[in-house]
Amino acid sequence: MIDFKQGMETEEDVSSEYKIKKSRKFITYAGIIVIVACIFAGKVIMSGPSGDSWFNISSIFSKVATLTTAEDKKLTGEEDDRINILLIGMGGKNHDGAYLADTIMLLSFKPSTKQVSMISIPRDTTVQVEGGAWRKINSVNATAEAKMPGSGGPAMATALSEILGVPITYYVRADFQGFINIVDEMKGIEVNVENTLDDYSYPVMGREDNPDYYSRYEHLHVEAGLQQMDGSLALKFARSRHGLGKEGTDFARAKRQQLILQAVKEKLLSKSTLLKPAMILKISGQLSEHIDTNLGIREMLLFWDKFKDVNRDSIINKVIDNQDNGLLVDSRGEDGAYLLVPKSGNFNQIKAFVQNIFGADTTINKTIDVKPIENQVNLQIINGTWVTGLASQIANKLDPYNFKATKIGNGIERNFVTSAIYDLSYGKNDQAIKSLSELTGAKLAYDNPNWLETLKNSTSTPGIVLILGTDAQGWEIKPAQK
Description:
alpha/beta; 14 helices
């Protein structure tokens, strides 16, 4: 076993160039593995519980060489141009509800464009579990762990795959103390706080049952602006649920968690971390004790190779929420417990939102020019979103192409993410529908909503109905070519 501490006693006295040269081999192999593990909150397969027995360096070098030259450099989901990882944060031992998921986030990677999306799912979202009962999604991890230790991560991935409509192969589960320790090992992180946070009811760990009720809580105050945070403050900032004003919602909380995750990533990739192998070793020890994942060394290396150059502008941050234009609404269970349920009554709109997080796969006027159709076609445009005036805007853009909007209005359902075309002309307008699809990127749908049936019996039946989703805001419909 190589002693990494040897030769580091005078690290501060040697030149930066010498340190880089001395550490390059370590960083290239060992460092990459641990840093990738941290970025995706994974853990490296250890040969023992301590940092000194991290791994057999000569053995891992040969494994890395094999992995990086292998022909099958594919991650699960890469062939479909989307790789999904579920991140789960929980209290862990010494916390009430140790295995209840406190943070749930879906990370998706799109290899073809090097884009990354972060979608936060509220822990109060309800799902149907085995036996037909409905429970909060955060309880799935705890229920599985009670039946079989170590099964919580896979159970959560399976449940989220079903309600989000995307296959989730990889998962990462971390507890609070591990997060605190890792941030502290990095000497803290810098976070650009968007809004001042004042939470007068932040629970003090260990005082949950204190007879003095008011001593159970503390005042958490974080000013807006760039703030330096240690592990404890970073965790409090991410977990706070009772902030004043708009910071008091679970959805503001989810956004703060995404800020923290990005700050951790940036610190891990900074020179202050890369040039300190001893720090990386300490972080690896925390990963071994506090992180559970099915990501292996091979997957971590492949992630690093494919996504190490992703910049902040390529990261999409979203929260599934209960705002006016959100996909969830407040509800109560039979026992009075607070729940969040899909606004549309099922998970179809949420699935569409998640499945199209990177945008519709369409050419939308970027590679083709669409000419106006020869004969005018009646078109009804229904705004399926809460974006005011969207239907009128689209109608004005389509009019030069001979699509006559005979009726413009708001839909009964207002939570469409993906736009859709419905043909009420029984196939008489195939060419017009093709042109409309090329112009907008909307696809022809075949499962007509029940409320569309009334239009079929109307004397002023439009030939085509276009229901607008939130993706319509990004349509780039060029002026018609005469």
